[in-house]
Design brief:
CATH topology of the largest domain: Butyryl-CoA Dehydrogenase, subunit A, domain 3
CATH architecture of the largest domain: Up-down Bundle
Structural class: alpha+beta
Strand content: 5-15%
Helix content: 40-55%
Shape: globular
Order of helices and strands: HHHHHEEEEEEEEHHHHHHHH
Number of strands: 8
CATH superfamily of the largest domain: Butyryl-CoA Dehydrogenase, subunit A, domain 3
Distance between the termini: 42 Å
Length: about 425
């Protein structure tokens, strides 16, 4: 990709206040509520503001990773429709930029930045969650296509997605980490069934996905056959650093035609409330809530807020550390620390909100504060220990890769994975 319209020729180092001022100047010149959403999002992408933390050559501004959240919040304060969100921006685009060919980058990344297509993650399986490399969804080569059979589960926003980051096993005769490939997979085809999974929030963000002789072009194999595990580490790195940096890649507004947004008037879409409310609670949100309910001087609330500020600063510093180490060719394991920090932030922030609200915190309906936003955040916060990789797995990785502790023994290391599966179950292959 090349530098885009209205983007500077070089990437400046800007403070948060300078970024806000720059974005407001751009909005003064370009915000037009009468454009449809697709037209508006193309303007935002051309200006490098969909993903301002991407380099200029990648279609961004070359600003800091946290600039994405700053840009989005500035759009909201201005009254303009935010850029498209979702997993395509958080994970698929940076993965393809890292491992894809120029043709794959041009074909897949530009539609993500312009919000034309929604993406989901097709990684976890009923028998391969924490041990992701144990996946058994199969991809068999047939000319210039691959035939896919298997099942995925816990796929966020798969009902609204057009594309999926698909991990499939292309070779059962090598060790399990070596026989995996990463595909940019089209969900809009026969042989793909998506079923929503209802959560205790009452929503169905997660889904299970079934593949029955579905197809994917060989041209959409990212990173080469059998190199999927290395590509996956890149995807997980961006997922966990994105979570650790504060979840700046909000999933709303949903990208792609299934979100029902592209053809709408941008000014109308800008007025929409986020479905389920904004579950990410900031320190400013909690301070305002404490003042409103007369709890600003409560020593317990103040102590918890101080702890939350500590976690937030640690998350920010860890994100900066990860970026610096990534520039030197490392930093993969640092993402795990950031992910655990964000788990602490999600759980503690929602806990503080309910402490402030007292009995009112039981109202998860429009009768509750801010339409039940804080209660909804609390109920959902339990998932933060699981999504992006369980906290237990993150701690294992930190112990092994950061602290140098001995790895867990694996009697099957290096053995052909098909052979291992046959020993577990003769019907496994």
């Amino acid at each position: 990709m090349s530098a885009t319209t209205d983007a500077p020729a070089v990437a400046p180092t800007l403070s948060t206040d300078e970024i806000r001022a720059e974005v407001r100047r751009w909005l003064d010149e370009h915000w037009d509520p009468d454009l449809d959403v697709a037209e508006w999002w193309k303007l935002v992408a051309d200006a490098g503001l969909t993903a301002p933390h991407f380099t200029i050559e990648q279609g961004g501004r070359g600003w800091s990773r946290r600039s994405h959240a700053t840009v989005r919040s500035t759009f909201g304060e201005y009254g303009a429709l935010r850029g498209p969100g979702g997993l395509g921006l958080l994970m698929a685009a940076p993965t393809i930029l890292t491992h894809g060919t120029p043709e794959q980058i041009a074909r897949h990344v530009t539609p993500i930045l312009e919000g034309q297509l929604g993406w989901c993650q097709l990684f976890s399986e009923p028998g391969a969650g924490s041990d992701l490399a144990g996946l058994t969804t199969r991809a068999v080569r047939d000319g210039d296509k691959w035939i896919i059979n298997g099942q995925k589960v816990w796929s966020s926003q798969a009902m609204e997605a057009n594309r999926g980051m698909l991990l499939a096993r292309t070779d059962f005769d090598v060790a399990k980490h070596q026989g995996i490939s990463w595909f940019a997979f089209s969900l809009d085809q026969p042989g793909v069934t998506v079923r929503p999974l209802r959560e205790m929030t009452g929503e169905a963000m997660f889904n299970e996905v079934f593949f029955d002789d579905a197809e994917v072009d060989d041209a959409d194999l990212i990173g080469g056959q059998g190199n999927g595990w290395a590509v996956t580490q890149t995807t997980l790195y961006f997922e966990r650093t994105g979570i650790g940096a504060g979840g700046g890649h909000a999933g709303y507004p949903l990208a792609g035609p299934k979100g029902g947004t592209l053809g709408r008037r941008a000014g109308d879409a800008a007025q929409d409330k986020m479905p389920g409310g904004n579950m990410v609670l900031t320190i400013d949100d909690l301070r305002a809530l404490a003042r409103e309910h007369g709890r600003s001087d409560d020593p317990t609330i103040r102590q918890k807020l101080a702890r939350l500020i500590t976690y937030t600063n640690l998350g920010s510093w860890n994100a900066q550390r990860g970026k610096a180490e990534a520039a030197r060719g490392g930093g993969q394991a640092v993402a795990q620390t950031g992910k655990i920090t964000q788990t602490n932030i999600m759980k503690l922030s929602s806990e503080i909100a309910l402490d402030i609200l007292g009995a009112g915190g039981m109202l998860a309906t429009p009768d509750g504060d801010q339409d039940g936003r804080f209660t909804h955040s609390f109920v959902f916060s339990a998932a933060s220990s699981i999504y992006g990789g369980t906290d237990e797995i993150q701690r294992n990785i930190i112990g092994e890769r950061l602290l140098g502790l001995p790895r867990e023994p694996d009697a099957n290391k290096g053995r052909p994975y098909g052979e291992v599966l046959r020993e577990i179950s003769p019907a496994a292959r």
